[in-house]
Amino acid sequence: MIEEKVDRFLKQKHFVLSGKRFLVGVSGGPDSLALLHLLSEKQKQQQNFYMVVAHVDHMFRGEESYNEAKFVEQFCNKHQIPFTMKRINVPEYIKRTGKSSQVSSRECRYEFFAEVMNEYQLTHAALAHHGDDQIETILMRLTRGSSGSSRAGIPFIRPFKDGFIVRPFLCLSRKEIEQYCSDHELNPRRDPSNEKDVYLRNRFRNHVVPFLKQENEHVHEQFQRFSEELQQDEALLQELTIKKMNTVWKVKQDNEITIDIDAFQSMPISLQRRGIQLILNYLYKKRPASLSAIHIEQFFILIKGDNPSGSLDFPSGLKVKRSYRLCHFTFNADQKGGFYIEFDQPGEYILPNGDSISLKYTHDRESSEDAILLNKKNVPLPIIVRTREPGDRMSLKGMEGTKKIKSIFIDQKIPIEERNSWPVVTDGQNRILWLPRLKKCRESTVVNKDMDYILITYKKQIK
Q1: Is the Cβ–Cβ distance between 126 and 39 less than 8 Å?
Q2: Topology (CATH) of 246-331
Q3: Average confidence (pLDDT) over 91-111
């Protein structure tokens, strides 16, 4: 029986329900409704814990999604379970931030969960992710190229705000949960978007997982075991990495790190990979979206090469310099007036010289000499505002091919002392879009009706 299977799983995790104060996230679908029902039954068995149901209407499907909220509320009223809900305009959030529907939904939902946990002084958020979700997550992350603990998928328990998220159903398959709903006549609601192949997770769910289930009906248990072993191995490797890196540091400050290359390379390669991640996590307060495995590979090429000196430019102005057997990580070490700013959502930044640059999403075809209007679909994020780099070139309106940024500065008679601090606007693939007040890229001419735009505006400091 499912109840016994969940009990064994919780016992294996040394997790007891008694004494806890739970938020239970319930959408009204089979997974979350089964979890709510199971916990409700355990409450009736005199297990001493408290729970509040939290529901979010993401407002994607109008009256249909609102009716799902009322369904969950009625279920809670019938079983005398405290219920709270919130309607969040996620489509508007997507327009404002430019993030995907799934990321936006998750961020809005988890923000509400945090509010409820704080209001009711709850200790744990119980969510209904199950074994098939685990398969999908691990495969998606492996396909995307995740590393370290990210490959381990969904943890049973993890910190969340001042409490924890816990997932009691990771030991179950989707089929088992559907059977539980049928046995207890729960009549869950179903979101039709879960069947659409437009989402990556749905493609794994609808095509890859069924194939694996044909090979082994209990494959979700193998993936859960793999996840747990990987998490345990990763925890040990991280502990060893921290211990070894203490022999590698020469300088360790908020914005600067120097390492001994020989000491670093004496570490096993698995610890080296985690060591460079440790360095980057320490230096970056917010990890840039454009930081990728390519940067890590460049670092290893730099320290393994025969040349005793060399340098790399990492996102957000981080300079990596090799000098004989030392490697230095510093921000804007030798670039006077240099900067590197990433826009992964609308906002405004003040540049070192006092000028400002801002980004917003719009449907209006507004533009000026101090702004550039771009087709949102054709511009990969993040938008980057930085100072010039050697070899910079851009395509220009009304001109075939590309032109050097250096030549543009010369043609426009920009003083030499201003060139190193002049903003260069690029997309997430380092394609130069705009030199404010000077030149716009060829693509900025494309303006049509019913199009979503990115509007970037540059303002000079008023003196």
Answers
A1: yes
A2: 3.30.465
A3: 89
